Amino acid sequence: MSSETKNTVxxxxxxxxxxxxxxxxGTTILxxxxxxxxxxxxxxxxxxxxxxxxxGKCRTCLVEVAAGSAADPRPMPKLVASCRTGVMEGxxxxxxxxxxxxxxxxxxxxxxLLNHPLDCPVCDQAGECHLQDLGYEHGxxxxxxxxxxxxxxxxxxxxxxxxxxxxxxxxxxCTYVAxxxxxxxxxxxxxxxxxxxxxxHISKAIDNNFSGNMIDVCPVGALTDKTFRFKNRVxxxxxxxxxxxxPDCCGKVTLWQRGDEVLRVTAxxxxxxxxxxxxxxxxxxxxxxxxxxxxASDWVIEGPANINRHSVISQGHYTGLQKPKETLPEVMxxxxxxxxxxxxxxxxVNKIELSQLPGAATGNDFNSPAAKEA
Amino acid sequence: xxxxxxxxxxxxxxxTTYEVYRREGGYRSxxxxxxxxxxxxxxxxxxxxxxxxxxxxxxxxxxxxGFLAKPEGVPRYLVVNADESEPGTFKDRYLMEFIxxxxxxxxxxxxxxxxxxxxxxxxxxxxxxxxEILEKAIDEARANGWLGKNILGSGFDCDIYVHRGAxxxxxxxxxxxxxxxxxxxxxxxxxxPFPAVKGxxxxxxxxxxxxxxxxxxxxxxxxGEEYAKIGIGKSTGTKLISACGxxxxxxxxxxxxxxxxxxFIYSDEYCGGIPAxxxxxxxxxxxxxxxxxxxxxxxKTAKGETRMMTYESLADGGFxxxxxxxxxxxxxxxxxxxxxxxxxxxxxxxRHESCGQCSPCRxxxxxxxxxxxxxxxxxxxxxxxxxxxxxxxxxxxxxxxPLGDAAAWPVAAAIRHFRDEFEWxxxxxxxxxxxxxxxxxxxxxxxxxxxxxx
Lengths: 374, 454
Fold this sequence. Notes:
heterodimer; A: alpha+beta; Ubiquitin-like (UB roll); Alpha-Beta Plaits; 3 domains; 5-stranded mixed sheet; 11 helices; about 20% helix; about 20% strand; globular; B: alpha/beta; Rossmann fold; de novo design (two linked rop proteins); 4-stranded parallel sheet; 19 helices
């Protein structure tokens, strides 16, 4: 009996868009919706589950609470930020089934894009920008804003990171990174309202060893990696999982390669665009791994990264490829070309015949025993 | 002559000094509370008085005090919100400037009821001289044994600190105020948790307006029931109204919430009518963020009843035909005023004061300001009016704190009641630069539909 009582206390039943799910008590509506997954999940631009205190600001995750709880089934008077509202037993939430929510969300998307430059073709974040996805999924085709957008000068905050405040949507995630990951915060929000800006205090350089993580948490192209900026479009690069023994961080990363060149190193992201966790700990990576280890030989490569099929990055899928006819031996009169190096020695990825795989290659294709034999 | 409870002694010579204030009967409520009442009895008196928060929302103070969590071993705080920055509101400044000891007396009594050993006055940074007056008064009170350890031998310790703001309107929002008091950026917190559970430094906190805390003094002196006899219905006691705009006698008036709006504007005891033979066009009865009303709806409700200076009567009809008591900033506009221009300057204010934390308010306030500027300068389009309406609707209710609502309401009300003036601005752009729209029909009697007899 007592264990039963315990169970009822520790999980609560919540209904989101007519789907009922049991979740641990204290879960937020957003996280409950993420457990269901799919279209039921509200978008989130400022909430980041690994950063304490984040969320509540962008208002894209607003949902309607049609019944507060089983004990008090009154609806909540206003739309609530699902990322900061806890679930209650018997709560009924409406997300995509609520017209009010859809309208408010379209409004928020319009507000977010109001002062954001619509120049994705020249922005380095394009292809992995959350605001781009949000605008695509929830926005309108045009803007009603007829005025000049606010602009700022680009600013170098430290040797590795460039801040382009014009693109910032003030989600505050990077300030939480600075607060919670580094021991000495030197940047924050200056000024207020639509002229608020992220900046360091009197152009101080950010040189903390974990500062690079603010690039990973930035949902837009406001904070970019200076070692990667404008080197390549993200969808032309090949994301692969790799690891190394790092004394400072977990060492588990995604390498973004073009050929064998490592163009960029980032932390691994989960399906919500957040840094993956390992044994309950967020997999933040240190600046040494991110900025200094730019050679494939620094890393043990595990295999291609899991990329959502809807992402433009997965466009370089490998199925149905026609191998071009090998003409080189013919040209060279039957002689094989002398290899400068054997590509198979450099990267394990090359040991798999990608054109034989039925779908997009995943890490599993490379980790299976058959793959290892090949 | 209305009854005065707060400002009765405000003009006695030297009342800012402790000696005169004490001679005039000051600090009696502290004596009464500490010597003869338990903290719960003080709270009970405040509940009985029906006192409602004077800062704008009008929430019953006794109930707010009742919500205060009282965990063992955790300090509790009383914070007085003196960050009075609403355009049109200057009643707290008057009270603190002329009779500072009244606020301190109310604070000590309230601190005793709430169990706060350290209470704070968060004062607007621009009130430099007022902060100095308060600090001098605190020193005097401490020197005379009203603050410090073991006050009046009751075993109750209390001290009061004045904290100056740095010039942000948003810090008048209670959770932003607490953030600022903690030394952080003044961004409103996401509620829940409410300050009554987790406020200053994570401890249970009550944030009250200056006037609310001062009103505790007459409540304890005369008893809550006596206080509740003044006023109409749930609007008990007296209210300070800071009247400004096109009136003969701008200033701070204490009213006992039994008079009509018409009497307040035209009687010689209060505003003294509108100067230079002009006519009443519109009024914002409760500080810049509450809806503006045209003259006809201001003096009479949509049902044809006389509108009174009470919380209920001013809100009669909801936002469709009513307004709010708000913080008591009574702004009167005569027929030479332009509502479009006026709405623009309010939109400019809210754009400047938005903290920039949540997107609807940060982006929406700036957008509204720009559109209003276009309309005001003759570059507007008719579709802009509908656009404004749509923007304010998407801000209202979708933000973390009430500043979003406060920015949306004035625009909404101006369009709701003065749409033809906006249209005139758009359709006659050149003329609108030369002259104002004038009174037009805004003071015409409203048609009240009568029930049809069978």
